[in-house]
Design goal:
The complex is a heterodimer of chains A (1053) and B (307). Helices cover 18% and strands 32% of the residues of chain A. Chain A has 17 helices and 61 strands. In chain A, the strands form 14 sheets. In chain A, strands 1, 2, 4, 5, 7, 12, 13, 14 and 16 form a nine-stranded antiparallel beta sheet that branches. In chain A, strands 27-37-34-33-32-30-29-28 form an eight-stranded parallel beta sheet. In chain A, a hairpin with an 8-residue loop joins strand 1 and strand 2. The longest helix of chain A has 23 residues. The relative contact order of chain A is 0.06. With 307 residues, chain B is an alpha+beta fold. Chain B folds into two domains: 130 residues; 158 residues, Galactose-binding domain-like (Jelly Rolls, Sandwich). In chain B, the strands form three sheets. A six-stranded antiparallel beta sheet of chain B has the order 3-2-4-10-7-8, with no helix packed on it. The longest helix of chain B has 17 residues. Chain B is elongated, with a radius of gyration of 26 Å. The termini of chain B are far apart. Classes of the chains: A alpha+beta (1053), B alpha+beta (307).
């Protein structure tokens, strides 16, 4: 690489130095602008601050309001390549250039408008092309190469992976456009991305070429020096075959996958009497005899058996004319990947282009294509989007796409929530109750479902995020009339905000803080949060729309679903509710957030649950910038200005164990930059050990045990915390809208540290009698304000024997059975706060003595216990929360981030016959009598354990059978695996199994992988792959509870 | 719940004795499990459910939860007639009983001068921030409606800002007021000596060395207005506080912005037309209440001269 091209004395010459070559042989130069002779030439003129310095075109202007660059004096039609071409730029970026994050640096522009809107459709903006560098991430050195092409009636764009471009050294970028839907990028000779776009050639530019800037406003000055730009003719195949989808799930389409190759004729001549021959995995497919019009296309369908082995297969296609001359020949790799299995979803809430890395860490999902931000799905994106989904699926991943009503409608005034004067609120929020908005967005969502919904890689949809945070009563649309219809009267006059004014600021509020459940204000806020602001209804509509048009496995979700007062219905009927929070200063607060989401979902039985941990930490909260510390950490040397840093690895570990102790369908992580690095990002990558920790947990725990963890049920809580809607509504300062940073959340921690296993209930649990068994003890923290209905219900619970525990906030109208006092959290003393909360937990346990005994206890409050299970099988989750201040952020004394080894004795109140460590797949020593079991446990730092206690059975053997016993290739069969006790009876528990099956040629066979044997039995219905080797199949089975392994053989005919 | 006031005191005493026996009978000879507060309170509730008139006799119960509930029921039934019991409860050993008495008095204060007087009298001796906050609010001596020129429906002229004066972002004087009694000490006066207060910038006080403080705090700033210009109003604009604010200009109370948590970061303004001192030094005093998490004058403050 050459050294800097900048800055050097300005030399401006006016000698022609570009050449044009109209030859079309591949590799021939079509046009070249070479400034190495420090000449500009007669064909170009310099604009604004652009000049020639040291043999390179330099745009000294960084102001996007002023024109720059070198512009053709007269538009030259030869500068639009006729079909396929390579674009090459030799350049350097200037370290002194003031980069704007949202402004690209353009090499070349003859297009002007990237994505012309409807109003511009008749303007000449679907012509010519542009190539440039688009800033990627917060760092000044990361970019994507991008290109946009005008096809006459529409446009298409493509971009490379993120690349790092050191400044002040010379580099080369090549963009290759093949004219039939493929764009590839190179940086300094290295491939940096291939994109599939709509097929077509560039329509002749209607505007002159501009080098080093955008042709018109807003300008996009190139941030450095361009030495040379060259356009070369590339190989063009105007008759071509394309296959949009190449990756399929095994068994897809009920055993028949459909290949849809498309034949394109980009010539001016119709093609008739063609013959198309095709083979799939060497097997001939039915020949076709197509005829295609000039500039026409024709799609074919080849049905293929989808029960084949999980591998790639060649699809070879040859198109001949009537004389037998080959017009096009194409080979595609078609891949069958494993069928959608029984796994726990691990979703990266974000995106990283390195699918292999994401999969390797243990994620199952990351962001994918799907919805369009600004309107209905544009079909021209389908080829690229299908390829993107193929890539994801082939990498062993699935995708989720986010639908955002916020971005779609908040730029349009008529869809905004407004105050009583009709003025949009300063914090914009879409009026989700608006019927026109609903119809329009449902149509958008439907268009995406119709376009991409047949690809199984698109597996999830996040339907809106953080939309309730900004909601407020809206008086512009239908909500006043809706409420009047609902209640029979108008929205009460005092209503202006999403919560009423705090009772503490209302002199007229009843002094005992008991209000009537049927008071107009109370009725309004119930209505508003349940349905009135329209969000829950819209969520339902969008979710239902997607399910109506997507017929494979597909999950819709909403988050953060408890960023609302505690009232059932948040998220509407989406399939899954997700909640995120931050795992500091006490990582076991993730369990509290998880319990909140479970409480919310209880209003809709069957709704799935997900818990997300933020990988980012607010620097201001754990390592404040304005506080100097002795022995500052290493990361501070390079990330002094960081606002967000990486979560410490042990905090992530403990938070992980905390949340998976609860029954969940999915776990999620957000903060790609802080997790993955090393590309700079606003979420700074300050701790590489966190990624290692996550990989270890996901691969060591979630992958093998996920199917079991999803299924092990919760016990009905004996200790519960009531989150009152009314109290929350009128005393929002005491509550936290899902942020888990209030006294009620801290009480949950105290109870966890005391092994009291708290869970959370909402008012509706009791008002609607939805609790299977009343809790023994119900905590009612911060119950300052209650309505008369829930007050009466709480008093009824007391009469039924439920012990109510209140605090200093409890309304005097409720005489609680026990009173505790809140513990103030001291942010500068997390150690002291933890000790105070642990003492509170221990005091509570002592207060309850004689009233309630926890079924599982420990002598060490830093060992946090949780128990799930069912008859005869207890799953004991134990995590080590012993921590101290470390040298990553501990210097600030805001977070004890380093785990410490620990030891404790755990006692369970029943006898046990066998105990197994599910993580390490081995027996656990214990002492037991008829009434209790005792285990002495050692823990590594931040370690978690899952110990299965079987009351009456032990694991003795594994069995395997197949029905029929000797299946034939292609035949349906049932595989039966059992884990049995010493009497040969299946063990009455949900047990993890690992299965590895191979055919006689050593090919991996489905259903190899991790499974859950429910009631000790796993039954798998499958079809024997028709292309496997007949003969002996080796079946290796391992019980991941006991570690017991057995080998079996099966004969396939 | 209503007390059966018609029941004669004799009957009351008899029932109270019966209740005491009922509660006592729950106790074991060793005073352990059956003496558990949960059992005792369950027994109390069962007894008063049978006979509500028993409640009055438990105002002096040794169990603070029972005393508190008895006090609550008494006030609900008797209203201002319960003032003697409330006065007594203000000195209860249990802080929550004290708080309940204060809350009850605050509830009675609008109708009862005696209740207001009792609150004012009790304020210096109240032992919790919650009790003090309730008492201060109920006996708050400053009242003024906020009238802004822009909102004056009778003002049939266009309102224009002729001058905007930004108050400093740095250098405010600051003092916490955990006892919540500084308003009785003239801290808003122009001649008040605030040199002993620490300095504070606009922003959360939690990020400026006042960690984890919830409650009342005071800010003072001195600024100079230019020589008088033609105007119709002078307004002080706050872009946001966390969470409630009471404002004085040159010792005169201008009004409050007190919506609780919902008022956080909500812009508001006060009229100071009569109080502004042209061509001289002015003193702006702001009392902030923060009930949870971070607090303070969190966003800039400016003066608008309106014509």
């Amino acid at each position: 690489m050459r050294k800097s091209l900048l800055p050097l004395p300005l030399i401006l010459l006016t000698t022609l130095c570009f050449s044009i070559n109209a030859q079309v042989a591949p590799g021939k130069i079509l046009a070249q602008w070479d400034f190495s002779d420090s000449a500009i030439g007669e064909q170009l003129e310099l604009r604004g601050g652009t000049t020639i310095i040291d043999g390179a075109l330099v745009n000294l202007n960084d102001d996007t309001s002023k024109p720059g660059g070198a512009v053709e004096k007269k538009r030259d039609p030869r500068h639009t390549p006729p079909d396929a071409f390579d674009f090459e730029a030799v350049f350097s970026l200037s370290g002194a250039f003031k980069r704007n994050q949202s402004t690209p640096s353009l090499f070349y522009d003859s297009k002007y408008v990237v994505a012309p809107n409807q109003e511009e459709k008749n303007r000449p903006y679907h012509s010519g092309f542009m190539v440039g560098l688009k800033p990627a991430g917060a760092a000044t050195s990361t970019y994507r190469i991008f290109a946009v092409f005008g096809y006459g009636q529409n446009s298409a764009s493509a971009e490379s992976h993120v690349i790092q471009i050191p400044t002040d050294t010379e580099h080369t970028v090549v963009m290759s456009f093949n004219g039939t839907g493929r764009v590839s990028f190179q940086f300094d000779g290295k491939a940096v991305g291939v994109a599939t776009i709509a097929p077509g050639v560039v329509s002749p530019a209607q505007l002159p070429v501009c080098l080093g800037d955008r042709i018109g406003s807003v300008y996009q000055p190139f941030g450095g020096a361009i030495r040379r730009i060259t356009l070369r003719q590339a190989e063009y195949h105007p008759i071509t075959i394309m296959l949009q989808r190449k990756v399929f799930e095994r068994g897809e389409g009920n055993g028949t996958l459909l290949l849809h190759p498309t034949l394109y004729n980009f010539t001016d001549t119709p093609l008739e009497n063609l013959s198309l021959a095709a083979t799939f995995a060497g097997q001939e497919l039915k020949p076709k005899t197509p005829s295609i019009a000039a500039h026409g296309q024709m799609e074919f369908v080849y049905p293929i058996d989808s029960w084949g082995l999980e591998q790639s297969y060649p699809l070879e296609m040859t198109l001949r004319d009537e004389n037998g001359e080959v017009l096009a020949a194409q080979t595609f790799d078609v891949t069958i990947v494993p069928a959608y299995g029984d796994f726990m979803t691990v979703l990266l809430w974000g995106y990283d282009p390195d699918n292999a890395l994401i999969h390797d860490i243990g994620f199952t999902h990351q962001s994918c294509v799907g919805f369009t931000a600004n309107g209905p799905y544009d079909p021209k994106n389908r080829p690229a989007d299908m390829e993107s989904l193929d890539t994801l699926l082939k990498a062993g991943l699935y995708g989720y796409c986010a639908a955002s009503t916020k971005y779609r409608f908040e730029g349009r005034k008529r869809f905004l929530r407004t105050d009583r004067q009709g003025v949009p609120y300063p914090r914009l929020n879409a009026e989700a109750s608006n019927p026109a908005l609903r119809d329009e967005y449902a149509a958008d969502v439907k268009s995406s479902a119709l376009a991409l919904g047949d690809h199984p890689a698109w597996d999830m949809a996040l339907i809106n995020s953080e939309v309730r945070d900004g909601t407020r009563p809206s008086f512009g649309g239908t909500e006043p009339a809706d409420f009047k219809q609902f209640a029979g009267y108008d929205i009460p006059e005092q209503v202006t905000m999403k919560y009423p004014i705090s009772h503490r600021s209302r002199p007229d509020f009843p002094w005992d803080r008991i209000i009537a459940a049927d008071s107009p204000e109370q009725v309004f806020y119930h209505w508003f949060w349940r349905e009135g602001d329209g969000w829950n209804t819209l969520q339902t509509l969008l979710s239902d729309t997607l399910h109506r048009h997507i017929h494979h496995h597909f999950t819709t979700f909403f988050d953060p679903a408890v960023r609302v007062p505690p009232l059932w219905g948040s998220g509407g009927h989406v399939d899954m509710l997700n909640q995120w929070t931050y795992a500091y200063p006490d990582p076991i607060k993730i369990a509290q957030a998880t319990d909140e989401i479970a409480a919310m979902a209880a209003g809709r039985p069957g709704q799935k649950l997900s818990s997300m941990t933020q990988v980012i930490c607010y620097r201001s909260q754990i390592a404040p910038q304005n506080v100097e510390v002795a022995n500052p950490p290493k990361w501070l040397e390079t990330e002094k200005d960081a606002a967000f840093i990486t979560i410490p690895p042990d905090i992530l570990r403990i938070a992980f164990w905390s949340k998976i102790s609860r029954r969940l369908d999915a776990i999620m992580y957000h903060g790609t930059g802080s997790l993955l690095g090393p590309l700079p990002h606003s979420y700074r990558y300050t701790n590489g050990d966190t990624k290692v920790a996550l990989k270890e947990l996901l691969n060591g725990v979630v992958k093998p045990l996920g199917p079991v963890l999803k299924k092990v049920p919760e016990y009905t809580p004996e200790i519960a915390i009531l989150e009152s809607f009314t109290a929350n509504l009128h005393s929002p300062a005491l509550f936290a809208e899902g942020w888990s940073v209030n006294w009620a959340a801290d009480l949950h921690l105290a109870l966890q540290w005391a092994a009291l296993q708290p869970r959370i209930y909402y008012e509706e649990h009791f008002l609607q009698d939805k609790v299977a068994k009343l809790p023994a003890v119900l905590f009612v923290p911060s119950a300052e304000v209650l309505d008369d209905q829930i007050l009466a219900k709480l008093q009824e619970l007391q009469r039924k024997g439920v012990v109510l525990v209140g605090d200093e906030y409890t309304t005097p109208a409720l005489m609680v059975d026990l009173r505790i006092h809140s513990v103030p959290r001291v942010s500068t003393d997390p150690e002291g706060t933890k000790k105070a909360l642990q003492k509170l937990g221990s005091d509570i346990a002592a207060m309850l003595k004689g009233i309630y005994e926890a079924p599982m206890k420990t002598d060490n409050p830093d060992i946090v216990l949780y128990r799930r299970g069912r008859d005869g099988a207890d799953y004991c989750f134990a995590l080590n929360d012993k921590r101290t201040f470390g040298d990553y952020v501990g210097q600030w004394r805001r977070l004890m981030e380093d785990g410490l080894p620990n030891h404790g004795t755990v006692t369970i109140s029943h006898g046990t016959k066998a105990a197994y460590d599910l993580v390490n797949h081995r027996s656990v020593p214990f002492r037991s009598d008829a009434a209790s079991t005792v285990m002495d446990l050692d823990f590594a730092a931040a370690e978690g354990k899952i110990i299965l206690l079987l009351k009456d059975q032990s694991i003795h053997d594994l069995t395997f059978a197949c029905e029929p016993s000797q299946p034939a290739k292609g035949e349906s069969c049932e595989l039966i695996f059992q884990i049995v006790d010493d009497n040969g009876k299946p063990v009455n528990a949900i047990l993890p199994l690992e299965i590895a099956m191979t055919d006689a040629n050593g090919n991996r066979l489905p259903p190899s992988g991790f499974h859950a044997a429910v009631d000790g039995t796993l039954r798998i219905q499958d079809v024997v792959p028709p292309n496997m080797a007949a003969g002996t199949v080796n079946v290796h089975v391992r019980c991941l509870a006991s570690g017991l392994q057995r080998d079996f053989q099966l004969t396939v005919k | 719940m209503k007390l059966a006031k018609s029941i004669s005191s004799t009957v009351c005493l008899a029932l109270a004795a019966a209740m005491a026996i009922a509660v006592a009978s729950c106790r074991s000879p060793h005073g352990n499990l059956d003496d558990h507060p949960v059992r005792r309170r369950q027994a109390f509730r069962a007894a008063v459910a049978e006979n509500p008139s028993l409640i009055r006799s438990h105002l002096d119960d040794s169990d603070e939860e029972i005393r508190r509930y008895a006090l609550y029921c008494l006030v609900k039934a008797d209203g201002t007639a319960a003032l003697p019991q409330l006065r007594k409860a203000l000195a209860d050993s249990d802080l929550l009983v004290e708080l309940t008495a204060v809350e009850a008095l605050a509830g009675l204060a609008p109708q009862s001068a005696e209740a207001r007087a009792l609150l004012t009298e009790a304020l210096p001796t109240l032992r919790t921030a919650a009790a003090r906050e309730t008492a201060v609010k109920a006996s708050w001596p400053f009242h003024r409606d906020i009238k802004l020129l822009r909102n004056d429906a009778s003002w049939d002229h266009e309102v224009t800002v002729v001058q905007k004066i930004d108050l400093p972002l740095k250098g405010w004087r600051f003092m916490t007021d955990p006892q919540q009694d500084a308003h009785t000490k003239n801290v808003f006066g122009t001649d008040f000596d605030d040199s002993g207060w620490r300095t504070m910038d606009i922003g959360y006080w939690e990020f400026q060395g006042v960690d984890d403080y919830n409650g009342i705090a005071w800010y003072r700033i001195r600024f100079t207005l230019p020589d008088k210009i033609d105007h119709n109003a002078v307004e002080i604009h706050f872009d946001g506080v966390d969470e409630s604010a009471w404002v004085w200009l040159n010792g005169i109370y201008l009004g409050c912005h007190d919506l609780g948590e919902m008022g956080v970061d909500m812009p508001f303004a006060m009229d100071g037309t009569q109080e502004a001192r042209w061509g001289g030094e002015n003193v702006l005093t702001v009392r902030i209440l923060d009930t949870g998490r971070a607090g303070g004058i969190t966003k800039p403050v400016h003066i608008e001269i309106l014509k």
